[in-house]
Amino acid sequence: MSIKKRKQPQHKQNTFVYEEKAARNGYRAVAGIDEAGRGPLAGPVVAAAVVVRRTDFEEKIDDSKKLSARMREKAFIDIFKRCDVGIGSADVEEIDRVNILNATILAMTRAASELENKPDYLLIDGKIDVPFSAPRTCLIRGESLSVSIACASIIAKVFRDRIMLEMDEKYPEYGFKKHKGYGTREHMDAIRKYGLCGIHRNSFGPFGANRRTKKNYVRR
C-alpha cells in the first residue's frame, strides 16, 4: 500500500527582507514607492512613498489589488498610524504633455519629496528610475516582496479612488464610481454617448492613437 506524503507548509516569505537588508547597510529611512492609475483613460496618476516606522500592523498589508475596497480603506488608516507617508500626483494635463511614464516618474518624485524626513534609500515598484538623490532597488511586483511598497500601493490606490469618487459627482454620466476611469465597456459606451470630459486623457488609449477616431469622442 502506498502512503501519500503530506505536503510540507510553504515557508512564509519575509516581506521585510529588503528593508532589513538596507538597515544592515546603515540606512535609516527606507521608503517604498508605488503608483496607482497608469492604465485608466481618465484621472490623475497617483504615487505614494512610505517609510515603515512600526511593524505592528493591525490590518492586512498586501498588494492593493489583492485586497477588497473595505480592506484597503482599513489598511489606509492603519498605515498612517504606523508610517511616514508622502503622496504625489500628476494631473491629466501633465500626462498629456509628458506621457504617462514620465508623469508616473513625476508623481513618484513628488511623493518622495513630500515625506517629512528625506528618505535615504528607495524601494521602487517596477523598473522606474526616479530622479531622487538616494540609492535604490527596483523590484518587479514589489508589492508582494516589500511591506513598504505594499503600503505605498494601498495609499496610492485609496487616495486615487477617492479622487475618482469626487469626479463621479462632477461627471455622473461616466460611471467613475464603478470603474475609476479604466476602459470598461460601460465607460467606453458613455464616452461614445457623451464625448470626452475634462479629466479624460487626450493622449491615451484610443483617443491618442488615431486622430480621426478621436474626433468621434470629443464632447462638443
Write a structural description.
Residues 1-13 and 209-220 have low confidence and may be disordered. The protein is α/β, with parallel strands linked by helices and 220 residues long. The chain has helices spanning 17-24, 69-82, 92-98, 100-113, 147-170, 176-179, 185-194, 205-209, 211-215; strands at 30-36, 45-52, 83-90, 121-125, 136-139. The protein has a domain at 17-160: Ribonuclease H-like superfamily/Ribonuclease H (Nucleotidyltransferase, domain 5, 2-Layer Sandwich).
Structural topology:
Elements: H1 17-24, E1 30-36, E2 45-52, H2 69-82, E3 83-90, H3 92-98, H4 100-113, E4 121-125, E5 136-139, H5 147-170, H6 176-179, H7 185-194, H8 205-209, H9 211-215
Parallel strand pairs: 1-4, 4-5
Antiparallel strand pairs: 1-2, 2-3
Helix pairs in contact: 2-5, 3-4
Summed over residues and divided by their number, the pLDDT gives a mean of: 89
Helix and strand sequence: HEEHEHHEEHHHHH
Reported by name, the CATH topology of the domain at 17-160 is Nucleotidyltransferase, domain 5
What share of the residues does DSSP label as strand, in percent?
5-15%
Q: Quickly give the structural class.
A: alpha/beta
- Identify the CATH homologous superfamily of the domain at 17-160: Ribonuclease H-like superfamily/Ribonuclease H
Largest sheet: 5 strands, mixed
Q: Helix tally?
A: 9
Number of strands: 5
How far apart lie the N and C ends?
Answer: 77 Å
The CATH class of the domain at 17-160 turns out to be Alpha Beta
How much helical structure, as a percent, in the residues?
40-55%
CATH arch. level architecture of the domain at 17-160: 2-Layer Sandwich
> How are the strands ordered across the major sheet?
3-2-1-4-5
